[in-house]
Each structure stands twice: as C-alpha cells, then as structure tokens.
Amino acid sequence: MIIDPVTLIVALITVATPVLLAAIGELVVEKSGVLNLGVEGMMIMGAVCGFITAHQTGSVALAFAAGMAGAMALSLVFAVLTQVLMANQVASGLALTLFGLGLAALLGEGYSGLPVPAVTRPFPEAMQAIPVLGPILFSHSVLVYVAIALVGAVWFVLARTRTGLVIRAVGENHDAAHALGYKVVRIRFATILFGGACAGLGGAFLSVVRVQNWFDGMTAGAGWIALALVVFASWKAGRVLLGAWLFGGIAALQLRLQAAEVGVPVALLDASPYLVTIIVLVIISSDRRRAALNAPAALGRAFHAAS
Amino acid sequence: MIVLEKRPQPSRFWVVGAPVLAVVLTMIAGGIMFAALGKNPVEAIRIIFWDPLFSERFAGFSRPQLLVKAGPLILIAIGLSLGFRAGIWNIGAEGQYIVGALFGAAFGLAFWPSEHPLIFPGMIAAGLLGGFLWAMIPALLRVYARTNEILVSLLLVYVAEAMLASAATGWLRNPEGSGFPGSRNLARNPGTDNPELIAGTGMHWGVLAAFIAVIGAYVIFSRHILGYQIRLAGEAPRAARFAGVNAGRLVILCLGVSGALAGAAGLFEVAGPAARISIDFNVGYGFTAIIVAFLGRLNPIGILLAGLLMALTFIGGELAQLMLGIPAAAIQAFQGMLLFFLLALDVLANYRFRWKREVSA
Fold this sequence. Notes:
The complex is a heterodimer of chains A (about 300) and B (about 350). With about 300 residues, chain A is mainly α.
C-alpha cells in the first residue's frame, strides 16, 4: 500500500492545526459581528515573527509569543480602522492582508533556510511507540493539543458563559447591546485582538513546527481557507474542528498522492484543497435555513453610537 | 471628549482631499519605514516619486513604463469598481487575469507560427472570455447557491496559479525551449505580438483598452440606468429590490464585466510586456488593482489617476531597489499603508469631529 493511514492521520492533524487556530479565532471575531478578512495577512505576520524569534532566541515558546504579538499588532490596526474610524470592514481586512504580506516579506528577507530549534513533544517515547494509537494521539507538538483545547474553550465560553452571551448579543444586534449598556466597541476590540492572536499562533505553528522554514507567501491561502471554515462550520466551534481536519486530510492526502506519482495531474492535486473548500462552501451555503439562521445578524456592519 | 458626528452629506472637500492627504501621510510613514531599514528617507521618497518622471538619467526609460504598468491596473480596477459600488466583492481579479492570459496565449499559440491579422483580435476575445468564465464561477455560485463571492473568487486565485504552473511546465511549454518552463515568446511573432503603438510612449493595445474602459465606465455611471442601479444596490439594497433591480442579474453582470476586463489585462500583458507564459508571470496586478479602485474612490477618473500613481510606486520601487537596495517587498508594504491611511481618512468625509463634555447619566 502506498499510503499508510496512520501516518496520513498524523500528517492531517499537523496540517490542520494552523488553519484550525486561525479559524477558531475568526469565529469569535465574527460572533461579535466583525468580519476580518485580514486573516491571511495576520497569519503570515505570525509566521515570520515566529520564525525570526525561533531562529534568534532558540526558544519555541518565545517564537509562539512573538507570532501572536506580531499578528495582534496588525489586528490592532484593523480594530482602530473599523471600530474607531468606522472604515469599511471588507476593505480594511483586504488592506490588512496586502500590507501583512508585504511587511512579512520585508521582515523575513534573508531568513529563508535558516535553522530553528527542534520542537519538543510532551509525551514520552514509550507512549508514542504504541501501535496505531501512539503516533495518532501522542506524537504531536504541544500546540496541537492547545489548539484542540482552545476549540473546547471557545465553545464553552460562547455557549455557556455570560461573556459568551454578551459577545453574541453584540454580534446579533449592536444597537440593542449598546442600549443595555454593553461597551460594543470595547468588546469588539477584544475579540479582534483575540482573533489576531489565534491567527498569529497558527502562522507561527506553520513556520516553526510544520514547515520549519520561512519563505515568501508560505501561508498560501491558509488564511482564506480559515475564513471559509467559519462559514462551513455555520459559526459553531465544534464544526470548525471537523472542517479543519477535513481540509487537513485533503491537503495531506494530495501531498502523498503527488509523492506516489499516481496518474492524476499535479496541478489538480495542488488545487484540490481550494477546490474542495469551494465545493463544501457551496453545499453548506445552499442549505437556505441553516445559512440564514446561524450567521451573526450584525456581521460586517459598522457600529456608531448615536447617543 | 471628542465625539464623531455623522454628516448629513459626505463632505465634498474631504472626498477629494482624503486621497491626497493619504498619499502625503503614506510618504511620511514610508519614510519612517525606509529610515528603519537604514536608508535615507528623503532620498528614497525622491527616487520613488520624482526620479522616474523628472530625472535626466532615468526618465527616458521609466516614463514609458508608467503607461505599461498603469494600463492593466486601471483596466482591472475599473471592472472591480462596478461591483464594489454595488456591494459585490470580486477579490479574485488576480485569478481572472491569469486565466485570461492562459486562454489568450493558448489561442495564439494554437495557430503558431501563422501571422494572420485576425489572430490577435481572436486572442483578445479569448482573453476576455477566459476572465469572464473564471468570474462566472463565483457569480453563479453566489446567485444560485448563495455562496460568498469574496471567498470563492479568492480561493480560485490559487486554483488559477496551479493552472498557470501546469501550463508553463506542460501544455503550453515551448517545444523548442529544451525543457525549460515557459511558453514561446509571443512578442516575437507579429501575429501574436501586442506592440507599442506609438514609439517611446509605452502605449500598447492594453493601455488603449484601459482608456476606453475609463470612458465607458464614466458614461455608465453618469448617463446609464445601469450605473444608477449599481449605486442603488450598493447604497440601499432593499430600495433597489422595490425599484425592480434584479439582484442576481446585477451580480452576474458586475462580476462578468470585471472578470472579462481582468482577463483582457492578462492577455495584453502576456502578449506584450511579459511576452510569454511563465510560472511567475502574474505580478500581483489583480491585488494592487483593489488598492487602485479604492484610492480612485471607485470613480473612473479617480481610478485613472490612482492607477498612474500606483504605477509610479512600482517603477520608483524598482529604481529604489536598484539605487538604494530597498527590498521589493517594502513597496508592497508601502502600498498597503496607502490603503490604510485612505480608509482611516474616510472618516473625515463622513463624520465631523466635535468636542463634547462628558455628561453624567
């Protein structure tokens, strides 16, 4: 057999993690009624900041922190533009991506191919050696488990806590939330920064753990796929995990098919993660009731307190 | 504290003034960025904005380049502005540009080495068709499956890039290229060449098409019912529906036109300045055109000026790379900054700043 299912599942989980992190952050942002199309730009900033820090300091933990900080700085620009200056969210998000791609390329000049510290695994060798379950469950970087835990935490906070209720209220009807005394702008600032941190962490995971290298445009649309995942998940945290693994599965599988030189054109394999994402979007969106019910009602609308 | 008060009408002064101020602020912020890179900021700004036009050493070469670079930007941005005005976000012009170039080049190469005078018009038609068809995917999916056109058009850019790579290394590769990727040189054959029309100006068929598009868009927006419908759909979607504007048709029309124009821009580029299909044939015109459209305030004349300005930053950026060793990526960051400042300053057009004392509830 050319493709071993166990290594495929291990690869799938690794490939899915950056997108999963970015998507779960964007889910919270969108739940508060803000559409940030700058995920791709924030991810690549996270990737470059993380990679540079990992190379310079030799610390993976610091690299993750730097990735988060870089992307959060960028998301702060978006927050000021859209929340204080009431700029169009679609245009501001695009500006963020264009600027982020340029700035990341600028910062990363000369860093391609430099070494980064090895990533430690939290579980002992003996557990990783258990057949089938060992590699699948215990062979990953800490961040993979953190990402999955984060999905659980986001679900819990949004669905079960007062904080989550406030975030959702702001996303459904900002005028009503404002009338009740909630600080709409402040809450949205917080979610936007949280989204930035998640996207930056995803980017840093990509460059420091998964690829262990930096090159221009290395996110290759992962940020856009993260945005698509939020729609796919109908704004539900658990389904983001499902969607990320589906995407990771396709991406990991196509890489293996390319290596195995099966008779499928390489271009088609290269394009398959994007094509599958589009097909899944179509299937999800055509369900009229679900699409209409789940999107936060104030998504993408600027808020200006009249009084 | 300072509060913002919505103006009843957007300020006429700031609608024009904001882009100008944004350019000035970008120069200042860009200067700071160049200084951080260890370059002389004043010199860098002069090399980017002044030398390509007025220095004796470079102007001879770089002035014609202005139209070469501005042509595709204007052509694509005009198309995008139709949709943006109506709230239809085609973000995938880069992909439509690539597919237009592939269709056009494939048509021309199919008849190689014929020099028949109808081949070039056929290539233009194929380029238009390629971009149009690629844009129809997000358009039809939005109308019939309610899929978000932003995401679909964008994801299709990556699919188009995969197609470009396979064309350059496979089905359009030069059979006499001894295995190197890249197609035949289209500029070498008079039948497929997109020549400079007036020597020394940089004006080729694509630039002419861009000017025609500017005039066409101006007429549509100021004189035609379609321009009215687009504005209405963007500003008051419900009112538009009551006024009998068919939203689905508008989506197909706006995306179709912008896709076709982006496809044409790709064809003119591949048959002229780029001369061949290669793996890195696309240079981000489709994305930069988004900045051009906004900087030009979605207004045809504005887009014309913004396209020329953005072309200047490209040429000046190359010059700065050559003279000062400023990395090419700095220019991209610089262009992104411009869009930030523009979006930030929009607040001046729509709101008034007022000092207001805190009122205790």
